[in-house]
Specification:
With 165 residues, this protein is an alpha/beta fold. The protein is built from four helices and eight strands, in the order βααββαββββαβ. Helices cover 24% and strands 31% of the residues. The strands form two sheets. Strands 1-2-3-6-5-4 form a six-stranded mixed β-sheet. The longest helix is centred in the last third of the chain and has 12 residues. The radius of gyration is 16 Å and the shape is globular. The termini are far apart.
Length: 165
């Protein structure tokens, strides 16, 4: 079953006792925009400029392990076009949570979370390389999979199937 709550008040009323939601509400209530339960996993939509603070808050709440950072290109279906997802794990609670930020097509940029989880380094470089999403203040923002002289970002939906010629 999937449940979506829109607005901070609805999220706090329904999920205020969840450790992740309680931590965000206490630390920076302005950071989260939306929440969704799906298959017993919570997804919190975070304002892009607040992702570092939200990550720090989640770490203090016990989500000690960054499992993955990935992206989705929703072109042409929705705006904003890009979604960056951060999958976190709490070993003590044996529980996962997903933080996501939505980014526009015109300037898909979000701050790096390498200051919170240094392991985000390679994940963010991969997202940059394949989707063209830039992570501000990243210590080494350059291609990781494609050759340095490659043109474009192959996992974007508008990238030609046979590449640029």
């Amino acid at each position: 079953m999937s449940t979506t709550l829109h607005g901070k008040q609805a999220v706090l009323a329904e999920m205020g006792q969840h450790p992740a939601v309680a931590a965000l509400a206490a630390d920076l209530a302005e950071a989260f925009q939306d929440a969704r339960w799906d298959r017993d996993e919570l997804t919190l939509t975070i304002a892009p400029r607040q992702i570092v603070a939200a990550g720090q808050s989640m770490k203090r709440a016990g989500y000690n392990f960054l499992e993955d950072v990935t992206a989705v290109d929703w072109f042409p279906a929705t705006a904003p076009r890009f979604q960056v997802s951060y999958h976190l794990l709490s070993h003590s609670r044996k529980e996962r949570i997903r933080l996501r930020v939505m980014l526009p097509a015109s300037n898909p940029t979000v701050p790096t979370i390498t200051s919170v989880w240094p392991s985000a380094n390679y994940y963010e470089r991969e997202v940059f390389d394949l989707f063209g999403i830039t992570f501000e203040a990243h210590p080494n923002m350059r291609r990781i999979l494609m050759p340095d002289d490659w043109t474009g970002h192959p996992l974007r939906k508008d990238y030609p199937v046979e590449g640029y010629r």
